[in-house]
């Protein structure tokens, strides 16, 4: 009889902290599907470790995997296991229904004998010791040692150390109290606070460089009994002993070729030379090391064009063995397919770049985020051989080419390309790829489409590409030939092709993790060259995976150097115009600042590059092992003010659209009906008073974001009536945290999560919204971005109502769900239920939406949206008072009339007044055309009339000239009522009004009487009203 509960005992390394640990459960056999943030709590703790009572259900058996478990505290994962139905049945059918995990290398159905348990975690590759300088090791166990014990460092050149065999060379360590200067190590490594300090003897300090090549272990013994034993992490020691700034990779001159690899822990390194990109026998040449940690081999010029790998022999902490590992060069510039072999080459000069539109300031950017394959995979006008390839960007006259030129003309300055470096999640040889055959009769809410797509998801041509292998090589699946220099030349041609369209190029770079690790596998590179160094490890020695896999350690000198080198390399050798850093918050702030400095050093005279104009921005999220500065200061949002480095402002997305990436997609925001319509789901209904409060807070946050997210900007009054508070202190400070507008990237939708159109479908379904309202909600989101100060970023397809059939994470969902049709004729909405993995929990509420034909956007709707998109961008580009460059100008010139406790819910008004730059009061005004600009964002479903904000200037407000020719009828109906001096704003519209400069031919003086209005209290008293009328006539 199968037990209804599994009593799970998990053994943890001795002295490992257990506070906050819980068990995440999933799979069909688990009767409890725990949210990540609410894991199953510990039942009890005993001499063995932690005990959990896992409720089981055996009713339905779906697939092979029955039960998945991850022991974690937040993003800190300690242990994981997946059980098949067969394995689970064996444990559940046992008489006790108990299983012990964590000793003897696997599960056990019987309780272990405490006398026979090994003390320590060497057998599980633990490494809780930290050799942080030549003379100092930190170990938490050493913080509370029994009297008369002995702490030792053991070394083995053959990797023969274990709890049972601590033989080999041994050094006795001395527990010490360190001085103030040495205590800085805890400032650099806050997560090690509380560890005991161990001083190494002089002979060990002198031998430190040699010891880096050996297996190391720490032990505590008392009366010859081992109390604890663990491995040692040496990353910081390598930084002390082997930091290197000289040439790496392949270099060539007239004397020949030099190959250089930094591998200080290696026992030996050899070059394997190949004549071809694949197959063939390698010629082996030994490399030599000079004590710097760098291994070199030299060869004749005839090596040019050959392929090579390194064969590194070194101790690997993942296996606890000496491993012989073959790897391409981490500094490769080109390679064979699937990063199989590096290419010995010297890159030819970059092609001459066409003349580009002037770009005067980083805050003047407007960014369009696009996936390389999405751009052309579905475009019938593209050369068939170039579909989904780099060269599609070079071909002129295609639908995609004309569309990008239209966006560039309107005001898009940069195209941000999702990863185009070498990644490992798409087979690069065409013959090794398979594309799915979609069922011909599957309905709009069928499971059939996603089943077909996901069956071949890891074998088809599509993936977002956030799976880096070689950072310096372009991706081969986008090239017509994945071997050799073809991928390099075609990537360069793509960049040049975009430049010809008037668009600069931002490269999406992923330095926070790598696709592979360990001593085997084709995707592991850095971890083969210097095992255990380049990857960030937990205190107990396991590789951190909070970014999704194999987190990198930019706190290590050579990992930081690698990032800086690669950024400069792409700018110089591929002429990209900026960098978007994936999960930038996991990189150290020092590393990111060094990247900025490296770009700023590039000059037009020496490099042909205007380095200070290159963009740098990224995701400043703070989570996982880096949270709360546990690994030092990282490039997360709260640390970036004053750095000149941009970050995504998720405060605007939450306020405008509603909810967050981790909340119910039906949650509404300012543009999607919050407080103004019923909720899309009954379970989300809250009392109207609370909804209106949330709406006012959302409006405030939109105001702060429109003011460039400046933390020192002062809103005259917030929605609770508080006056003059810095924006960084309002509503949690999430919307305002920067010091300059170039440091904020405003966005509402990007490639992650649902598209903008799909989001409005969730939040504004047919039951509460019309087709037109949904359309206008999309436009409002675009308007908020386009008309704000700061850098706007738009997701490719926002302008054509792109859908992914409600897929919230389409990274591996194939061309089918990632369809991008710039004509708007073929929408992906209603092309089947999205893939099961991240979407199945919402399949049931999705089905009626996907079946509703009125929700499928038409070509006419897409064309209207493109026109509105271009109209708004053109207004931003042609109006210098929108998108101000300097923080002081925003603080002085930008106001939000109507804010405060008495604000009109659902309406945001921004006024920008002209004047000389704050930095040069004697200069000409910023704008030659307008004395001021007033932007009105109205989410209300009816027309509104607002008083013209009082001004010292004497002109009448007018509709922006580009609105007068708008293709949207409602926009053209917006006006200024000169008699009442009111702005007339149509329902669900974003309207820009302007007051022309007196020198403008469109200038019209204002009737002075309109500038004087009685206080509202006067109109309530007849006698005061009479006095006012007399005064009015005198005026």
UniProtKB/TrEMBL annotation:
Basic and acidic residues composition bias: residue spans: 428-438
Coiled coil stretches, renumbered: none
Alphabetized CDD domains for the sequence: AmyAc_Pullulanase_LD-like (cd11341), E_set_Pullulanase (cd02860)
Pullulanase N2 domain segment(s): 127-239
GO molecular function, one term: pullulanase activity
Annotated ranges, domain Glycoside hydrolase family 13 N-terminal: 247-331
InterPro entries xrefs: Carb-bd-like_fold, GH, Glyco_hydro_13_N, Glyco_hydro_b, Ig-like_fold, Ig_E-set, Pullul_strch, Pullul_strch_C
Domain of life: Eukaryota
Positions of the UniProt region annotated as Disordered: 423-448
Domain Alpha-1,6-glucosidases pullulanase-type C-terminal span(s) in chain numbering: 827-995
Pfam families, per database record: CBM_48, Pullul_strch_C, Pullulanase_N2
Gene3D superfamilies: 2.60.40.1110, Glycosidases, Golgi alpha-mannosidase II, Immunoglobulins, Rab geranylgeranyltransferase alpha-subunit, insert domain
Biological process, per Gene Ontology: carbohydrate metabolic process
Cross-referenced PANTHER family: GLYCOGEN DEBRANCHING ENZYME
Family statement: Belongs to the glycosyl hydrolase 13 family.
Official protein name in the record: Pullulanase
């Amino acid at each position: 009889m199968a037990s209804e509960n599994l009593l799970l005992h998990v053994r943890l390394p001795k002295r490992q902290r257990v506070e906050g640990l819980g068990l995440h459960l999933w799979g069909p056999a688990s009767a409890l599907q725990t949210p990540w943030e609410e894991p199953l709590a510990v039942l009890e703790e005993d001499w063995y470790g932690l005990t959990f009572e896992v409720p089981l259900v055996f009713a339905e058996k779906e697939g092979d995997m029955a039960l998945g478990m991850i022991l974690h505290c937040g993003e800190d994962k300690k242990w994981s296991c997946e059980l098949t139905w067969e394995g689970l049945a064996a444990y559940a059918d046992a008489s006790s229904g108990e299983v012990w995990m964590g000793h003897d290398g696997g599960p056990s159905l019987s309780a272990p004998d405490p006398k026979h348990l090994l003390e320590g975690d060497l057998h599980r590759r633990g490494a809780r010791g930290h050799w942080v300088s030549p003379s100092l090791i930190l170990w938490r166990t050493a913080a509370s040692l029994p009297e008369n014990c002995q702490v030792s460092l053991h070394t083995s050149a053959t990797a023969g150390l274990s709890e049972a065999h601590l033989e080999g060379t041994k050094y006795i360590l001395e527990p010490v109290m360190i001085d103030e200067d040495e205590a800085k190590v805890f400032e650099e490594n806050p997560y090690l606070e509380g560890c005991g300090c161990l001083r190494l003897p002089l002979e060990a300090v002198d031998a430190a460089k040699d010891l880096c090549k050996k297996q190391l272990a720490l032990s505590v013994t008392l009366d010859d009994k081992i109390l604890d034993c663990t491995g040692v992490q040496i990353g910081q020691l390598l930084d002390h002993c082997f930091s290197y700034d000289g040439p790496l990779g392949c270099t060539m001159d007239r004397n020949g070729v030099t190959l250089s690899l930094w591998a200080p822990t290696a026992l030996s390194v050899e070059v394997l030379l190949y004549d071809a990109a694949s197959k063939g026998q390698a010629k082996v040449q030994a490399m030599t090391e000079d004590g710097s940690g760098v291994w070199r081999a030299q060869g004749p010029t005839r090596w040019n064009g050959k392929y090579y790998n390194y064969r590194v022999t070194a101790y690997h902490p993942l296996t606890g063995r000496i491993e012989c590992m073959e790897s391409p060069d981490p500094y490769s510039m080109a390679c064979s397919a699937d990063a199989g072999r590096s290419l010995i080459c010297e890159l030819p000069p970059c092609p001459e770049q066409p003349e580009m539109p002037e770009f005067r300031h980083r805050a003047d950017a407007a960014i369009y985020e696009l996936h390389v394959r999405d751009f052309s995979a579905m475009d019938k006008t593209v050369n068939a051989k170039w579909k989904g390839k780099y060269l599609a960007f070079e071909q002129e006259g295609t639908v995609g080419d004309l569309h990008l030129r239209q966006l560039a003309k309107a005001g898009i300055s940069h195209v941000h390309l999702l990863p185009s470096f070498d990644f490992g999640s798409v087979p690069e040889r065409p013959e090794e790829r398979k594309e799915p055959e979609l069922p011909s009769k599957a309905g709009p809410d069928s499971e059939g489409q996603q089943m077909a797509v996901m069956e071949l998801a890891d074998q088809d041509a599509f993936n977002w590409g956030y799976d880096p292998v070689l950072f310096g090589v372009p991706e081969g699946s986008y090239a017509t030939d994945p071997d050799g220099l073809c991928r390099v030349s075609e990537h360069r041609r793509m960049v040049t092709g975009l430049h010809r369209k008037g668009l600069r190029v931002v490269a999406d770079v992923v330095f926070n993790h790598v696709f592979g690790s360990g001593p085997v596998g084709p995707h592991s590179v850095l971890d083969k060259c210097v095992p255990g160094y380049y990857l960030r490890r937990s205190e107990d020695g396991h590789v951190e995976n909070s970014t999704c896999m194999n987190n990198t350690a930019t706190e290590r000198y050579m990992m930081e150097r690698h990032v800086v080198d690669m950024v400069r390399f792409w700018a110089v050798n591929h002429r990209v115009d900026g960098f978007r850093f994936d999960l930038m918050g996991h990189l150290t702030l020092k590393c990111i600042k060094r990247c900025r400095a490296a770009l700023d050093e590039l000059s037009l005279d020496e490099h042909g590059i205007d380095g200070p104009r290159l963009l740098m921005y990224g995701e400043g999220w703070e989570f996982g092992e880096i949270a709360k500065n546990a690994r030092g200061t990282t490039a997360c949002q709260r640390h970036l003010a004053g750095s000149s480095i941009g970050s995504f402002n998720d405060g605007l997305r939450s306020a405008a659209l509603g909810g967050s990436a981790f909340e119910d997609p039906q949650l509404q925001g300012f543009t999607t009906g919050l407080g103004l319509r019923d909720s899309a789901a009954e379970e989300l209904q809250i009392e109207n008073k609370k909804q209106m409060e949330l709406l006012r807070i959302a409006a405030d946050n939109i105001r702060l974001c429109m003011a460039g997210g400046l933390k020192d900007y002062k809103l005259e009054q917030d929605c609770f009536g508080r006056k003059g508070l810095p924006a960084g202190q309002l509503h949690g400070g999430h919307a305002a945290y920067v010091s300059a507008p170039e440091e904020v990237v405003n966005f509402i939708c990007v490639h992650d999560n649902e598209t903008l159109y799909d989001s409005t479908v969730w939040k504004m379904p047919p039951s509460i919204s019309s087709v037109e309202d949904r359309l206008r909600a999309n436009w409002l989101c675009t308007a908020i971005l386009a008309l704000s100060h700061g850098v706007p970023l738009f997701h490719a397809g926002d302008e054509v109502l792109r859908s992914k059939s409600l897929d919230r994470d389409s990274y591996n969902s194939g061309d089918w769900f990632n369809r991008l049709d710039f004509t708007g004729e073929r929408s992906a909405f209603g092309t089947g239920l999205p893939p099961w993995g991240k979407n199945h929990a919402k399949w049931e509420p999705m089905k009626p939406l996907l079946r509703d034909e009125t929700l499928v956007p038409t070509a006419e709707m897409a064309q209207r949206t493109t026109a509105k998109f271009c109209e708004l961008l053109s207004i931003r580009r042609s109006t210098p008072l929108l998108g101000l460059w300097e923080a002081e100008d925003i603080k002085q010139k930008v106001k939000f009339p109507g804010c405060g406790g008495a604000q009109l819910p659902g309406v945001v008004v921004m006024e920008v007044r002209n004047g000389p730059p704050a930095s040069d009061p004697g200069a000409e005004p910023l704008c030659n055309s307008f004395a001021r600009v007033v932007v009105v964002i109205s989410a209300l479903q009816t027309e509104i009339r607002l008083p013209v904000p009082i001004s010292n200037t004497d002109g009448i407000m007018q509709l922006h000239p580009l609105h007068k020719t708008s293709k949207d009828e409602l926009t053209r109906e917006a006006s200024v009522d000169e008699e009442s001096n009111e702005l007339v704003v149509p329902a669900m519209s974003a309207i820009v009004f302007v007051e022309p400069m007196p020198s403008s031919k469109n200038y019209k003086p204002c009737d002075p009487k309109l500038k004087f209005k009685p206080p509202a209290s006067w109109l309530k008293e007849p006698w005061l009203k009479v006095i006012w009328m007399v005064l009015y006539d005198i005026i």
